[in-house]
Design a protein that fits this description.
single chain, 205 residues, alpha/beta, Rossmann fold, globular
């Protein structure tokens, strides 16, 4: 895994995407303190990784405007408005479904509210991942999503899809399918916008 991680870091740099590696949650949160100033606006994508690392709780405690998609007081229309606000946020924090050793970032999304602001809108994007998300190439990235990440997420969200039952993608056409938007980030014009933060442990799925 160390070799894959080293290759990914070098390849991301070649693709104009900076990255950093931390050993613990504490190191990560300390780092976020240095990046995110008081008074800024911050949006987030749905992520088991960010939840496990305590990032959502951390943001609640900061003196910022936090676009908290998990606020139970939000109605359907409120959440739509929040998703639109994410495009103008100072920071957008999310994870990725896979990052390949050649420095590409892979995501699959249901309604696009996670992948769209990663690609365009927010001033800065932080992609936070465990080393278990690192794969060799695009073939392995797609397989990781189809055979692992998407089925587990569909099950978590109680979606009525074949993969939620079988644990593997059946390329279904269900209205509940969460595999609607597949994105590959191969580089960026502004090398300071998207930053990948690796935590050297297995996180999320």
């Amino acid at each position: 895994m160390a070799t894959l991680l080293e290759d990914a870091v070098k390849s991301l740099k070649r693709n104009r995407i900076s990255s950093v590696i931390f050993e613990s949650e504490e190191n990560l949160l300390d780092y976020l303190d240095t990046l995110i100033d008081d008074g800024v606006t911050v949006g987030v994508g749905d992520s088991i990784t960010l939840e496990a690392l305590g990032v959502y709780d951390y943001l609640k405690k900061r003196d910022i405007t936090y676009y908290n998609k998990y606020d139970e007081a939000l109605g359907k229309e409120d959440k739509k408005e929040l998703y639109l606000k994410n495009f103008q946020a100072d920071y957008f924090l999310s994870s990725a479904n896979a990052i390949s050793s050649d420095g590409k970032i892979y995501n699959m999304d249901g309604n696009g509210s996670r992948v769209a602001p990663i690609i365009y809108g927010p001033k800065k994007v932080l992609i936070i991942c465990g080393v278990n998300k690192i794969v060799k190439d695009e073939k392995d990235a797609v397989e990781r999503i189809r055979a692992h990440a998407a089925p587990l997420d569909a099950k978590r969200l109680a979606k009525k899809t074949p993969c939620a039952v079988t644990g593997h993608c059946a390329d279904c056409k269900s209205k509940d399918k969460i595999c609607n938007y597949f994105t590959v980030i191969q580089g960026q014009f502004d090398e300071t916008r998207i930053r990948v933060i690796f935590v050297n442990k297995e996180l999320g799925y």
